[in-house]
Amino acid sequence: MILFNGDKVFRVSVKKTTDKNPTLIFLATNLNRMGMRVKEIRYSQQGLQSHLKMKENEIKKEKDGESLQLFTAHLTERLLGKCIFTFSIWIEGSVTGYCYHLSDRLITQQFWNASAKHEHGIDVELMCKDKTFSAHKAILAARSPIFAAEFANDHPAKDEGSHQIHVEDVDPSVMEEFLYFLYTGQPKTVLANDELLKLACRYQLTTLENLCRAALTKIDVQQAMNCMSSLNPAATGMHQEVKASSSVLIRPDAEIVIDHDQSVSTFQCCWELKVDAKALFPNTVIEYQHEKLFSPHLTGKVHGFVVKKPWIHLVCVNHRNFGFKAMNGFYSTDGKTWIEMKKRKAEDVELFLFVGQTSETFRDGCRVTFCMEMASTIENYNYELMDTSWTTQLWQFALEHKWTDVEIFVGAVKLEAHRVVLSARSPVLNVLLGDIDHLGKSSMAVEENIDVEVVEVFLKFLYTGRLDMTATNKQLLQLAESYEVETLLKICQLANRISADVTSKLDALPCKIDIADKPAVSFQMDLEVVNLFLKFLHTGSLDPSVSQTQMVALAEMYEAKTLSKISKLVSEISPDVDKLTTFILTFF
User: Fold this and answer.
1) Are 525 and 517 in contact (CB under 8 A)?
2) How far apart are CA 141 and CA 393, in angstroms?
3) Which PANTHER family match (predicted)?
4) Would you tell me how many other CB atoms lie within 10 Å of the CB of residue 429?
C-alpha cells in the first residue's frame, strides 16, 4: 500500500504466473473521495532511462464517479532478487469543471478571511441552528443563482442591514464546508457528505454537487469482479487462479508515503516538425501565457526529408522571469514510451539545455511530445485543483456591474468592482475604502499614466489570481507596488530583472507553439549564439563577434572541448579577422 494525503489509496503488486513474464499492477481506490482521479501512470525500472505508460483496464463504473481504477503493464523479463520501480502518477479532478489552475494561492485565504473574520462589508448572515455565519451578497449571488434570486429585491446602494437566511436542516460544520467551497472553489476537508450534497443541490453549485456525488460512490461487488476478471481473464473462479499461479511473497522494505509538493507540476506540449535544414536550428518557440519558454531543434544529418537517429534538443529561454525552474525533461514520439532527456547546465550563464538521442528515423510531420517537470520559485504561485467556475463567476459580475460598490476611474473611463475583493486583496485599498461612506458607490482614481487595459488585467488578477499579460509590463509592476499586491509584485519584479535582448530575439522567430494552461520554465541565452554554435559544429567556422562567455558555456555543456579552448583564447586576442583565421587554422 502507498499512502497519499494520509490515506491508503494506492496499491502496487506483481502478478507472477508459471508460463509468462510477470505483470505489474497498480490499483487506485477511493481517490474520488478527495475529488481526484488518476489520469495516467508511467513506470520505470532501476537503471533504465525510459518511462513506460501503464494501460488502464476497463472497469464498469457508476455514472456519478469511479472509486476503482486498475493499471497494468506486462514486463519483458522475469524479476529476480530486489527490484526497484519508480512511478509517475498524473492526477486530475474527478469531475468536469474541477481542474488544475495556475494562480495566486493567497486569494483562497484572503477571500475566506473576509467571511470568517467578518471583514470588508459583511451584508449577509446565514443562521444555522445555534451558529451564525457572515457573508457577502456579491460573492453568494455570483456563485449561486438561488442566492442571486434571494437578493433580487435588495438594493446594493442602500443600508438595509444584513440580509438574514435561515438554514436549519444541516449541521453548522457542513454549512462552514459549503461556504468555504463557495468562497474559495476548493473543498475544505470531506466531500463524501450527504448534507453537503444537499446544500450543493439546493443552491445549484454544479461542480460541488458533482464532486459530492463522485465522492459518495463506493466500490461495489460488480466492480471488484470486473477488476478480478481484468487480472485473470482465463479464470472462472478465484480458486482456479490459485492453481494457475505459483506462490510468491512480495513485500516492500518500508511503508511508502507520497508527499504532494504543491510547488512542483508538469506540462506537456507537442512539436510537429518539418524535416529540413531549418529543423537543425532553434526556429520554433513554445509559448505559455504570453511568455516565451522553449525552443526545440534537432542535430543530425538530413537526407532529403529524412534524418536518422537525431539528437533532440530543448533550449530553455526566459523560464526564470516567469517564476519556474526546469527540473527534468522527457520526450516521446508515440505517447507510450518516454525517454529522459539529459540536463546540461552552465553555472556562469543562465541557460538550460535538455538533450536526448533517438533510435529512430524522423520524417516530415513527425510529432515529438515533451513533458517537463517544473518547480515554482515564487511563493504562493502554483497549480491547484479548483472549481473552474469560481475563477470566472465573480469577475463576470464585475464586468457586468452586478452588485458592484466601487467605481474606478482611469482617465475618462469608468470601471466597476466589489469592495470585498479589492479590500481583501490589497492592504492599501482596504485602508482607502475602509473610511468611505458605504451608502453609495465608493470612487477612486488610478494614475493617468496607466493604460486602461493594464488596469483591467490588474483587477482580473485581484479577482482570479491569474495573469493575462506578460509580467514584464512596467505599468503592471507600478500597480502591484502602489497597491501592495504581494504575489503579483514578486512576479513582476522577477520578470523585470531579465534582459529584454533575449525576448527581442525570440520575437523574431517565425513559428510558435501555443500551449494552454500548463506550467512553465526557461533561460537567458541569445538564440543567435546557439545558432552560431550549431553552425560551428557543422562547418568549423567561428564568428569572433559572438559572446564568448555564452559560447564557452555551450561548448562545455555539449563537451565540445575544441570549441571551448578556441572561445577562451579568442576572447583574449585581437579581433582582426586575418589573425583570427590564421590562429584557427594553426590550432587545427
Assistant:
1) no
2) 9
3) SPECKLE-TYPE POZ PROTEIN
4) 25
User: How many angstroms separate the CA atoms of 212 and 282, rounded?
Assistant: 48
Q: Which segments of the chain have a pLDDT < 70?
A: 17-19, 60-65, 154-160, 220-255, 288-291, 317-322, 345-352, 435-439, 498-531, 533-588
What are φ and ψ of residue 97, in 5° steps?
95, 0
Length of the chain: 588
Query: What's at 87, amino acid-wise?
Result: F
Residue 432, phi then psi, degrees to nearest 5: -60, -45
Any residues with CB less than 8 A from the CB of 188 and at least 6 apart, and which?
A: 176, 177, 180, 181
Instruction: Please state the separation of Cα 568 from the chain's center in Å.
Output: 40
Cβ-proximal residues to 233 (8 Å cutoff; 6+ apart), any chain:
none
Q: Are the beta carbons of 125 and 197 closer than 8 angstroms?
A: no
Q: Contact at 8 Å (CB) between 466 and 288?
A: no
User: Which secondary-structure segment (H or E) carries 86?
Assistant: strand 85-93
Hey, what's the cell of 348?
556562469
In sequence order, the 6+-apart residues with CB closer than 8 A to the CB of 565 are: 587
pTM comes to 0.78
Q: What does the alpha-carbon distance between residue 313 and residue 356 come to, in Å, rounded to a whole number?
A: 7
Q: How far is CA 504 from CA 352, 524, 528, in A?
A: 19, 12, 11
